[in-house]
Here is the input.
Amino acid sequence: MIGRLMTMTTQPGRGGELADVLLKVAERLRGFSGCEIYLISQDTAAPDTVHVTEVWRDDASAQAALAAPPPADGLAPSDVLALLSAPPYRTDVTVLGGVGVPTDGLP
Here is the structure.
């Protein structure tokens, strides 16, 4: 399993808007093959900062989600990027376990 920790900072006052867009993305990923966790959170002290915590079965599953065509509602990666004041910061991690993480396939 792989994980990704994403930190995104929006243009001033648009953190809630970004969180709403990402929550819609999360809803579409519900049941997507290989997506184990897709958690959206907003920084309490800096509400224009939104974090995404992802856990995927493997990198191929994460790449398939990124390559999937945009849904009929029109939300696309460009919609997220348009809200940001800087490029997102991404940290790749190896998932070792924890609460809420499936135990099959872990080291």
